[in-house]
């Protein structure tokens, strides 16, 4: 409702206001400083002559300048305990089985792919005695603390199928009619 009111006020007498603004005389701009105008500088013949004139003294000085460049001799550092950290991480092949086409082929040690995470969570859920946290940590090169947190806080979804008898019971139930 408020939008309609503001639109009506904003559009009131728009044409008259626009024609009034257009018919006003334009204000004269403020005068510019002499040095700010480039066209006056390029028009003066003294400046053009000074720019185009060759100065023999400067040319002779320029001819005397000779630059010779040499690379400093390469010094191999001894190492001395200063090693830069390497960006290469150890990688391991993923353990995916028949889902190999869905995920990455190599992951860094200490990390798992999404398909591997779902697989290990499902294995632990179905067989918790076999797939313990220690076995999962050893199998996937993970820390035991992280595996315990993973098993505690992440639970895979379960799909429940209702038996056909209950479906018939639900569909055969007739809704009450209002009187």
Automatic annotation (TrEMBL):
Pfam families registered for this protein in UniProt: UPF0240 (PF06784)
InterPro entries assigned to the protein according to its UniProt record, in alphabetical order: NDUFAF4 (IPR009622)
Superkingdom, taxonomy of origin: Eukaryota
Biased composition (Basic and acidic residues): 17-27
GO CC annotation: mitochondrion
Chain spans, region Disordered: 1-42
GO biological process, one term: mitochondrial respiratory chain complex I assembly
Family: Belongs to the NDUFAF4 family.
Subunit text: Binds calmodulin. Interacts with NDUFAF3.
Protein name: NADH dehydrogenase [ubiquinone] 1 alpha subcomplex assembly factor 4
Gene: Ndufaf4
């Amino acid at each position: 409702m408020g939008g309609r009111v503001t639109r009506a006020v904003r559009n009131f007498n728009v044409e008259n206001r626009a024609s009034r603004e257009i018919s006003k005389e334009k204000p004269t701009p403020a005068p510019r400083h002499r040095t700010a105008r480039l066209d006056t500088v390029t028009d003066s013949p003294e400046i053009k002559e000074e720019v185009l004139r060759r100065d023999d003294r400067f040319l002779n000085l320029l001819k005397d300048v000779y630059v010779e460049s040499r690379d400093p001799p390469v010094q191999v550092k001894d190492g001395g305990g200063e090693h830069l950290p390497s960006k290469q991480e150890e990688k391991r092949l993923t353990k995916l089985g028949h889902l190999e086409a869905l995920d990455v082929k190599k992951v860094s040690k200490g990390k798992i792919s999404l398909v591997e995470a779902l697989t290990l969570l499902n294995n632990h859920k179905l067989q918790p005695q076999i797939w313990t946290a220690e076995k999962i940590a050893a199998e996937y090169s993970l820390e035991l603390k992280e595996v315990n947190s993973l098993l505690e806080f992440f639970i895979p979804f379960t799909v429940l199928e209702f038996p056909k008898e209950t479906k018939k019971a639900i569909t055969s139930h007739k809704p009450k009619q209002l009187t």
